[in-house]
Design brief:
Elements: H1 13-33, H2 40-51, H3 60-72, H4 77-97, H5 105-113, H6 116-119, H7 127-145, H8 150-170, H9 175-192, H10 197-227, H11 235-254, H12 265-277, H13 291-298, H14 300-313, H15 315-330, H16 348-354, H17 362-372, H18 382-398, H19 405-424, H20 434-448
């Protein structure tokens, strides 16, 4: 009897049953939510994809993907099928190729697919969901690659880098996942090499370096090609200015006497008044789309100079503001910050151009109510997933199978991704850290597959 994992021996029924549960979960996620849910951002991106003219406030790569699916079937249906397929395929591959699958695995899979993170969120057209799916799927391909050799290994590594590059194109700070994926590849290859450490380091690092160079070239080429079809300019600059303005207002809110010598007296007064009346660490919405926003945008250079001066010479008020914002982001709960969305909502002119009616159906409201059952539980707690990610990361690095560390690096990347919001966060929408939740669930599922089988891979470190 072959020792290669997969569907085969009758006594391996837990593996077959687990795969069946995952496939049923995939079908349910699509059938219950088809053709997907759209919010304001989703509507803009879908129309961009259909017209081929991109607003660069969001990375246009996702809009381009939406446009590809929309050409075949109008709407976001094919897009949500793609992103759900990435996640569920990764979970199925984990199940098929994990050496040991315990008798509790089917029940664990059933509990997993019943969570809103899989059953509902996979149908929401948000870059946060696609980013998380690309990270899980890319990491799973790396894990598979390191269990093989030759052409198969090379092809799987290439596929992993494609997905991790896509994650960086979908989300601005998603490059963290790409870098950690490359690091995991080098770490595992280093353990396979023999000889002196310089030779091992060179041979282990070369594939990752080549992968990163190709990924960087692809990202630059794709971004440049899509930018030629942009309908606006300076999206990244506008976002950076928005962050700088929010930081100045927040710093002044925490220290009303903060010097603002790089600003005109009138602008300094406006910043101080706004800090008193409109600032909240929860989100920066009250600073956008109004006279304050137009005034500060006209003085973008002065705002930037003052922002740098505050960080370099008066960092404590800025840091207090940043910590307050980060606290909202990490500690956000659906009862306070925006969570999932169902139905269709967005700007009416764009919806009319798409031929899509706004609103919620009875089914949409039922799915929203189902997710609401979990809102006050750890299922919707980034802090819970963060703590669990640390525990699972330790388990992955202690595994006797070196390739399991790929999932450890995946979790490390998710935690670093979360930390990046300490510097760039501007609002506490729950979706921003969805990648932490999903990578932790995926790694936890992989670990739990061995329960009930006497799997001892986590009991001691690798020799």
């Amino acid at each position: 009897m072959s020792s290669e994992p997969g569907l085969g021996p009758p006594r391996d029924w837990p593996r077959a049953a687990t795969v069946a549960v995952l496939l049923i979960g995939f079908a349910m996620a699509l059938s219950l939510n088809w053709p997907g849910y759209l919010s304001y951002d989703s509507v803009i991106q879908l129309l961009d994809g259909r017209t081929g003219r991109y607003h660069v406030w969001h990375p246009p790569f996702m809009a381009w993907l939406l446009g590809l699916g929309d050409r075949l079937i109008r709407g976001p249906g094919l897009f949500i099928t793609l992103q759900a397929l990435l996640l569920f395929s990764a979970l199925v591959l984990m199940t098929l190729k994990r050496p040991v699958v315990g008798r509790f695995a089917p029940a664990i899979a059933l509990a997993l697919v019943g969570l809103p993170h899989l059953l509902l969120w996979q149908a929401i057209v948000w870059k946060d969901v696609l980013f998380a799916d690309c990270v899980v799927a890319g990491s799973t391909l790396l894990w598979l690659a390191l269990g093989g050799a030759g052409v198969r290994r090379t092809a799987l590594i290439a596929g992993a880098f494609v997905l991790l590059t896509a994650s960086a194109l979908v989300r601005q700070n998603g490059i963290i996942a790409l870098l950690l994926g490359a690091a995991s590849l080098s770490f595992c290859l280093f353990g396979e090499e023999t000889g002196g450490w310089p030779r091992r380091l060179l041979r282990a690092g070369a594939p990752a370096v080549v992968g990163l160079i190709v990924a960087a070239a692809a990202m630059l080429a794709i971004s440049a090609a899509l930018a030629r079809h942009a309908v606006d300019e300076g999206g990244a600059e506008a976002q950076f200015h928005m962050l700088q303005t929010y930081d100045l207002v927040g710093a002044v809110a925490h220290d009303p006497k903060l010097p603002l010598d790089d600003l005109s007296p009138e602008l300094a007064t406006l910043i101080r008044d706004t800090a008193k009346t409109a600032y909240t660490a929860e989100r920066n919405d009250d600073l956008l789309g109004n006279a304050f926003n137009r005034t500060t945008a006209a003085a973008a250079d002065d705002i930037e100079a003052q922002w740098y001066d505050v960080i370099l010479h008066h960092p404590w008020p800025w840091l207090r503001h940043r910590l307050a914002v980060f606290g909202w982001i990490v500690g956000s709960t659906p009862s306070v910050c925006y969570a999932e969305t169902t139905g269709v909502d967005g700007p009416r002119p764009q919806l009319k151009a798409l031929g899509i009616a706004p609103g919620q159906s009875r089914r949409d409201r039922a799915m929203e109510a189902y997710a609401g059952v979990f809102h006050r539980t750890p299922v919707y707690s980034h802090l819970f997933y963060g703590a669990l990610a640390v525990v699972l990361m330790a388990a992955m690095f202690r595994s006797r199978e070196r390739r399991d560390t790929v999932f450890g690096f995946m979790l490390a990347g998710a935690l670093l991704f979360v930390l990046s919001f300490l510097a760039i966060g501007v609002a506490c929408d729950y979706r921003y850290l969805y990648a932490l939740d999903l990578t932790t669930l995926a790694a936890g599922f992989y670990w739990a597959l061995g329960l009930g089988a006497g799997d001892g891979r986590w009991t001691r470190s690798r020799t």
